[in-house]
Amino acid sequence: MAVKNFVVGLFDDEAVLFPAVKKVRTAGYKLHDVYTPFPIHGLDHAMGLRESSLHTAGFIYGITGTTTALSFMSWVFNVDWPLNIGGKPHFPLPAFIPITFELTVLFAAVGMVMTFCYLCQLMPGVKKHIFHPRQTDDKFVMVIELTEKTNAEEVKNFLKASGAHDIEEQQAEAGWWFGRFDKDDEPYLRKVKPVNA
Amino acid sequence: MHLKYESTLREPLVDGVKDYHQVTEDIISPIEAKPGKLWYVGFFISLALLGFGAFSVFWQIYFGVGVWNLNKTIGWGWDITNFVWWVGIGHAGTLISAILLLFRQGWRTGVNRAAEAMTIFAVMCAGQFPIIHMGRVWMAFFILPYPNTRGPVWVNFNSPLLWDVFAISTYFTVSLLFWYSGLLPDFATIRDRAKTKLRKLLYGVASFGWTGSTKHWQRHESLSLVLAGLSTPLVLSVHTIVSFDFATSVIPGWHTTIFPPYFVAGAIFSGFAMVNTLLIITRKILNLEEYITVGHMEAMNKVIVLTGSVVGCAYLTELFMAWYGANPYEFDTFFKYRAAGPLGWSYWIMMTCNVISPQVFWFRKMRRSVAVTFFMSIIVNIGMWFERFVIICTSLYRDYLPSSWSYYRPSWPEVGFYMGTFGLFFTCYFLFAKYFPVIAVAEIKSILKTSGENFKEKMEVYEEQPDEKFAHDVAHAH
């Protein structure tokens, strides 16, 4: 990814955050992200994010599990080693239900979690820029990206008017890298200019 | 103006004056402090038990399965009893985290983390029993359908015991994934407020680099919901399949169609009792009484009295069917050797603990008493252990051939093995209570403004105004 310039503002209350998000969008600023300590229902819609398709992926993984279980067990009992078990049929569908069900659930769950980790770039050893240490505690951190067209001072004043505090400009890596959280190993020279908010 | 509020008639789920930061402080600070004396005492007792269990298992593997008091008549004894008991205990965790999530029960947020941890540790304990029971544990991998050089000879997919292998391993994996995906944001919280380098490093690795991005939360919500949707039928299927181990056989006392729902109800019953046992201790030691309130215990006691009564109905139905079914062997099993006979005492312990004593929870005062809840949680778990013992042993010790009739009491390695799993369970739980947030911090924050005591008080204004006005104000708030 790349190193970019951001203006960061902190909000204390989600009731103040919502109108601010709406105003950012109408004002036309590039909203990088909003970091929150817990899921806020409706914030994704307010930010104009599209719905997650993770559940569709889960469905596909699920039917993969169903097919795997059914076809494997049928292949074993009918093709690879047709064993006579007490004269029972070689394709005992009712007896296949439990394992088929379990494999459906297993494939769907494992597949979805792996997809989730892949999409959100989550893995042991992965590190990302934390704009404010309280973003996982009690603050809602709005991050606006500065492009050539945006004026930093204007964005700061805008955030202040929307109810944010501790507004500052940060230069940060926008993507992820392999790093340790006990070391300041962000792959760029960090310049933080605090602003009297 | 808040986007939604909850009726003030409902009891708050978080007591005291709290803001988001205070929630973090309350739940995370025990992790950052040195554990108290009680923690060390408990932890070392658990370790000692675990050590004794390991020795008992070593003894059994070294000398063979003959050191157990199982015999030709009684092939399943304490081992399978303990297996079913531990698996059952695990079920409450999934019920709380999955089924109550789907039902949008806010109170689950206070107890779900610890209950899910309990599920995982209980399933770990349960899994030991069938594996060690195999006798030649080094051959345990034969239960997996892997391409081998013996044909390949595959496992028998028609066998309920193999279904169990799939059910338990899937259950463990899915529970672990569900639990850990919920832990990611909380680990990030610990990481970002960590003062020491080691804590920053370790929780940084454990948090997978979670930042709290809105898009990630959206996917996280979607993931939790689908995992809950998957876990709900899964948890029902697991104990159903465990009950198939018995129900698909032709042993009188096992061969009944009532087993799946009866086992599932029993599992939830014992699981909630174990959640109560653990949480009453946890809330006391970690000072979390404001998050795990008496209201939470009352809710769980309601589930206990419901499932206990379901189980009671199942016992009576079994007795009725044994008489009405007109099968002399089944009649004898139930009326001569289960409710009476040399092992009859265990049946009446079961009846007293599971059916009669939980009826105290019809009284609100009893449901809300911490002492009664704690006492009953132990009683219910004793009762549910005896239920499995009764089902397994009283059906086996009097079989079709009177010359092979036998009696069963466990040998010391069997008892030691059981104690060892307690050691494993509590060792894991103590480590969890020390190093993990025992309450889902992010989830508590998400219900704080609707169910926190200090926020509920502010809602009385909205309570008095008509619904239309509230809806109108929300719609035009911003």
UniProtKB/TrEMBL annotation, chain A:
It comes from the Bacteria. Keywords: Membrane, Transmembrane, Transmembrane helix. The chain crosses the membrane at residues 57-77, 97-119. This is Uncharacterized protein DUF3341. It comes from Chitinophaga dinghuensis. The lineage of its organism: Bacteria, Pseudomonadati, Bacteroidota, Chitinophagia, Chitinophagales.
TrEMBL record, chain B:
Signal peptide: none annotated. The chain crosses the membrane at residues 38-63, 83-103, 115-141, 161-183, 223-242, 262-282, 303-325, 345-363, 370-397, 417-436. The keyword RNA-binding does not apply. It is a multi-pass membrane protein. It is found in: Cell membrane. It holds the Pfam family NrfD. Its main location: membrane. The keyword Transmembrane applies. Keywords: Cell membrane, Membrane, Transmembrane, Transmembrane helix. GO terms for cellular component: plasma membrane. This is Molybdopterin-containing oxidoreductase family membrane subunit. The lineage of its organism: Bacteria, Pseudomonadati, Bacteroidota, Chitinophagia, Chitinophagales.
